[in-house]
Amino acid sequence: MEFNLDNFKVQGVKVNYYYICKRKLWLYSKGITMEQNSDRVMIGKLVHENSYKRLKKKEVLIDDMLKIDILDNDYVREVKISSKMTKADKMQLIYYLYYLDSLGIKKKGQINYVKERRQEEIELTNEYKREIEKALIDIKEISQKKKPPELVKLPYCTKCAYYEFCFAKEV
Ligand code: SF4
């Protein structure tokens, strides 16, 4: 059966969370948002606003859902503090490229890792297209579940905004 993006559109952050932690994705999908309290998220926002100011960029809001930075008409850009979550960051950007591609807009992707002062270029391949379709199907399924995925401790849990939610013990 042909994949129909209209049935699976989500915010880019959900794709990111899908690759970080399925439980985090579920919590966010249910409207349980604690990210605004996270210093890391605040820092991320500031970095995004202040970095690479010299570059010509245009912020575009697509379908009231995806806020994308377009650079020099050729690239879509994501700014990240560090490359600790490379796979998640990459797939979020690939999702943007995929989404634009479905609208007939061909772009390449560029991730700027601010801490390492490093850039990575990404192109949308057929393999990536299939991978993102599978991820979008899974995201829908996880988001519709009544209960969150089982708690599994991950190396980055202590840095997660949901840490207390997941690990708080009664005293
Ligand atoms: S604290 Fe760990 S298990 Fe809980 S949502 Fe965050 S990453 Fe996932």
TrEMBL record:
Co-factor remark: Mg(2+) or Mn(2+) required for ssDNA cleavage activity.
Family matches, as InterPro entries: CRISPR-assoc_prot_Cas4 (IPR013343), Dna2/Cas4_DUF83 (IPR022765), PDDEXK-like_dom_sf (IPR011604)
Keywords carried by this UniProt record: Antiviral defense, Exonuclease, Hydrolase, Iron, Iron-sulfur, Manganese, Metal-binding, Nuclease
Sections of the chain in a coiled coil: none
A Gene Ontology biological process term: defense response to virus
Gene Ontology molecular function: exonuclease activity; iron-sulfur cluster binding; metal ion binding
One Pfam assignment: Cas_Cas4
DUF83 domain residues: 11-167
EC number(s) given by UniProt: 3.1.12.1
Names of the cofactor(s): iron-sulfur cluster; Mg(2+); Mn(2+)
Similarity-based family: Belongs to the CRISPR-associated exonuclease Cas4 family.
Function as written in the Swiss-Prot or TrEMBL entry: CRISPR (clustered regularly interspaced short palindromic repeat) is an adaptive immune system that provides protection against mobile genetic elements (viruses, transposable elements and conjugative plasmids). CRISPR clusters contain sequences complementary to antecedent mobile elements and target invading nucleic acids. CRISPR clusters are transcribed and processed into CRISPR RNA (crRNA).
The protein's name in its UniProt record: CRISPR-associated exonuclease Cas4
UniProt source species: Caloranaerobacter azorensis DSM 13643
